[in-house]
Design the sequence.
């Protein structure tokens, strides 16, 4: 890679040893794990030492590792380089925009990683099956699942290097918790026939128990406070709560405790989601021709035409698209397909398009 023979961008999060030496040249040591490959072999995998340097160099390199002075290389290390399809050419269902009925998932969409591939694989599979059944695609939102964040990032922003999913990529991290994954996704799973009925029944019972207990805590007093107010105190856990219901399942009490203790933060985030959803629900009609929205900047025009976002929310997330651009789109959408170039041109004269056109307002 450093000689320029390979032009591809390496995976940022699994750098090779030569990459580490260049990028972290201020470090004076690097930990390497010698991993036995199995019980029936003497082979050792040198973890943390991936490389695409020439074989002769690898031979010398390995001998510099303390304890490996006499090591023999059984198979040289190598790098892989692969092509990918630009994920901005996909709908959020992972169907390609140009070829109906063709769904893509995984590394071909520019991602790297097992979970990234699996997450797209399940959605692509679901949506291909639903197409065959003549049903609408399943699209998870950014506030519903990390899968939603992953796919929205890919199809909206594209990627210039192997894409990895991180919790930090999600703006609604408080909602996307591991403890509430069933609460977020079971109903969808049941609706599309992926959650077996007995699991769904169990889920509904849990959901009911949580609601009932939350209601009991809100309406039962202990002294001057309700049980909910007492549970909100940092030093009080559910098990220490007066009148705690000891018959409840641990999963139920854990959820009740989280919902009560963090309700302020969770509600704030839910308000943000709600505000954002009004944009997300505004479908951009097929008749919009970005060439004829006169006041759009060239960059916005090009990016919108290239990505063809499905909703105003998706348009707003494209890098380089400003709130003002979104407002201009809203103006044209509001005026309808009959709106002429001249009518839309009126928007050009808005002093502060983002505010005056009410970026988040109703159409
Ligand atoms: C050495 C190495 C180490 C890695 N380590 C990790 C790690 O520790 N953690 C992690 O999360 N990720 C890791 N990755 C990345 C991860 O393995 C991949 O990103 C992921 O497996 C990609 O899955 P995929 O299903 O998109 O593609 P693949 O797993 O490549 O699957 C594509 C499949 O399509 C088949 N195929 C290709 N062409 C055709 C054809 N014409 N007809 C039929 N079938 C075809 C291929 O044989 C293959 O089985 C590693 C990758 C490598 C190379």
Sequence:
């Amino acid at each position: 890679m450093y000689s320029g023979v390979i032009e591809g961008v390496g995976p940022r999060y699994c750098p090779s040893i030569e990459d580490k030496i260049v990028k972290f040249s201020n470090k004076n040591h690097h930990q390497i794990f010698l991993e036995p490959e199995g019980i029936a072999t003497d082979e050792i995998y040198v973890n943390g030492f991936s490389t695409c340097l020439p074989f002769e160099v690898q031979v010398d390199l390995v001998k510099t590792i303390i304890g490996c002075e006499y090591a023999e290389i059984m198979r040289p290390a190598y790098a892989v380089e692969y092509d990918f399809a630009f994920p901005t050419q996909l709908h959020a269902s992972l169907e390609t925009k140009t070829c109906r009925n063709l769904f893509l998932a995984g590394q071909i969409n520019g991602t790297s990683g097992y979970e990234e591939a699996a997450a797209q694989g399940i959605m692509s599979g679901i949506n291909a099956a639903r197409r065959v059944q003549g049903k609408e695609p399943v699209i998870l939102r950014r506030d519903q699942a990390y899968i939603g964040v992953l796919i929205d990032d890919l199809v909206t922003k594209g990627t210039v290097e192997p894409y990895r999913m991180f919790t930090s990529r999600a703006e609604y991290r408080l909602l996307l918790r591991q403890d509430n994954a069933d609460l977020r996704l079971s109903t969808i799973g049941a609706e599309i026939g992926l959650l077996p009925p007995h699991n769904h029944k169990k889920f509904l019972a849990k959901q009911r128990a949580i609601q009932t207990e939350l209601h009991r805590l809100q309406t039962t007093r202990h002294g001057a406070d309700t049980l909910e107010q007492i549970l909100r105190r940092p030093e009080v856990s559910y098990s220490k709560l007066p009148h705690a219901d000891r018959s409840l399942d641990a999963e139920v009490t854990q959820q009740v405790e989280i919902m009560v203790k963090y309700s302020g933060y969770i509600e704030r985030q839910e308000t943000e989601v709600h505000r954002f959803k009004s944009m997300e629900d505004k479908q951009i009609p097929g008749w919009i021709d970005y060439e004829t929205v006169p006041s759009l900047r060239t960059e916005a025009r090009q990016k919108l035409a290239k990505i063809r976002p499905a909703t105003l929310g998706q348009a707003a997330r494209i890098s380089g698209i400003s709130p003002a651009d979104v407002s201009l789109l809203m103006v044209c959408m509001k005026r309808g397909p009959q709106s002429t170039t001249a009518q839309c041109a009126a928007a050009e004269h808005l002093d502060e398009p983002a505010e005056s056109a009410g970026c988040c307002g109703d159409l």
Summary: Confidence is low (pLDDT under 50) at residues 342-363. The CA atoms of residues 137 and 177 lie 24 Å apart. The longest helix spans residues 197-219. Strands lie at 33-36, 44-47, 221-222, 225-226.
